[in-house]
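Lab channel / #folding
Pinned by the channel admin:
"Please post every new chain as: sequence first, then the structure tokens as a reply. Keep commentary short and put observations after the output so the thread stays searchable."

First post following the new format, from NK:
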Amino acid sequence: MSDGGHISRPDPALGQMSPLAEVWSIAWPTILTMTSYTIMQFVDALMVGQVGPLELTAQNNGGVWTFTPLAWVMGALTVVNTYTAQHLGAGRPETGSKYGWTAIWLSVAAWALFMLPAAALVPLLFGAMKDHSPELVRMESGYARILLSGSVLMLCARGIGHYFFGMHRPKIITIATVTGNITNVIFNYILIFGEGGLTAYADDGSILFSLPGVPGAPTMGVYGAAVGTIIGTAVEFAIPLAVFLSPKWNRLYQSRATWRPRWKTFREVIKLGWPCSIQWGNEIVCWSLFMSVIIGTFGEAHMTAGWIALRYMHLAFMPTVGIATAVSSLVGKYIGAGRPDTGVARARLGLVIAVGYMTFCGAMFFFFRHPLMSFFVGGDTPPEQVREIIDIGGRIMICAAVFQLFDAFGIVYSFALRGAGDTLWPSVATIVCSWAFIIGLGWGLAVYVPQWESVGPWIGAAAFIIVFGIAMSFRFESGAWRKIRLVSTLREEAAETAPAGPAPPATSPDSAVYDLTDAAGSHEPLEAGGSPDPTRPA
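Reply from TO:
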């Protein structure tokens, strides 16, 4: 029985598609979602980079420290996908609606309790970083405060997104994300450049191109990028929320009936999600310290080059996160359906796709490292400073090229473990490896091998990604996650509720359970005791 006395048939498409078609049908909208978000960030950085390298550094420092408190909440929200997908596979898709609402309520509570106080404290944080100039502190603090103040929209959008991923409806989130990102880019251009528009210059001072501004629009620079992000995120959240509350979705999945906060569901999400929360939060803290403090000791040119290199790394790993999100949903669905071996096969197939893509990215990073870096340095930046940033960034891109393959293993297998409900082990591995390599080895190379400059800490970061990828591979392939059970299958529930009494001989111990399962309604919820629509195929 599901909540509310409903019985549902398992997903009718379960296992009917070819393995590659099934993985790709979930993966491509998710990849497009993640790629769209990454391209938006990429274009944002390109726009801010035309204002100046200091503004670009401020945007990235402010952004990563904004994401630090957000990551703790976003990590917990990822298990909404796990619960929703497992209930879908178990034949109870309507039960997932309460997890969608829990994601929204949890987001609002976290924003009020943590994000607003954090917005008030960020100037103190950046002011304590001795290698940051007063002008840099002012810009990165202002950027972070705007994002944190509007972060409730971002949290809600991510939470409801995980619900739709778990329901295997990623196209809804794809449409929302692409629309929100287009809105973001438009408002970024309007608010960053204002009435003056954008003029790009060549190294010799000649004008490459000039774009007009918007009459009456303020020239907000890096702050305009933050406001544009908030506006785009509002659109990104509004679209899936409208679908979630629509009459059709409510008729199928009772989405309006489960709006009240449910403490039991909160506890389920927190119990499974707190290791993900720690994993995400810890890793972002380490990367924030790495970029702002460790790399910051070598000067603003090294920070700028590092942030540009990270933008390209995002173009590599964010589509892989899309593949991994699809893998997590498929693993969760097949475990909920009582078919974990099929989930393993889908995870391995997703890994093959991710490895191919990230290996290609690694080759591009190596062979085109200097041209790629030059795209981000514009405006009236002095030529000698441009050459310095490109030279530093080229060396960092070599480090990035080396670890791309291992990053695919770490991302896909850690998401596969999350789909299975194994969240604690990856969290512990992340904490140990990130502090040992990103912070420990990175700081040690910066202090004891200073002649390597910022490339030394980046070698430590590469070691973290390589070791983590190997660790996640061993954990998933060991099968230890098979002992974890989050939801019972429809067959198990039917067996538990089957009436005792005489029964005809069965050729299989599960025959009676199969009969009850086949008799349980269509994919749409039915009242307990009702009969399925006789016009629909069994």
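NK: Confidence is low (pLDDT under 50) at residues 1-14, 490-538.
TO: also worth noting, The first strand starts at residue 6 and ends at 7.
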